[in-house]
Design goal:
Layout (H helix, E strand, L loop, with lengths): L1 H17 L9 E3 L2 H7 L30 E3 L6 H34 L1
Antiparallel strand pairs: 1-2
Helix pairs in contact: 1-3
Length: 113
Amino acid sequence: MHASYLSVRQSTIAGNVANANTQGYQARDTVPFAQVLARTGSDMAMTSRAHLQAPGLGVPVRTDKTGWDVLETSSSVSLEQEMLKASEVSRQHNLDVGVVRSFHRMLMSAVRS
């Protein structure tokens, strides 16, 4: 989920940079990920009758089919700000990749033991 959010945010930033010299273009940005995460159903969900019964399970699963929200800001494009945002997205993506890589190493270590 976070990786696709970062992809959309990077595309939005790239669009801002590409249109930096376009007359009247308003910079765009995505809704912060914390807000996106708050809108999703984070409770455990029972998606199959074969799952074990437990209190609190069986809540409906909410899916957001509308995609990520991209907002127009009231300012023109600042290349410095867009470059800072792009480096932040890159750093967050590298962190995600590092976490997945560590998880994979731990899993492989447990399987080999």
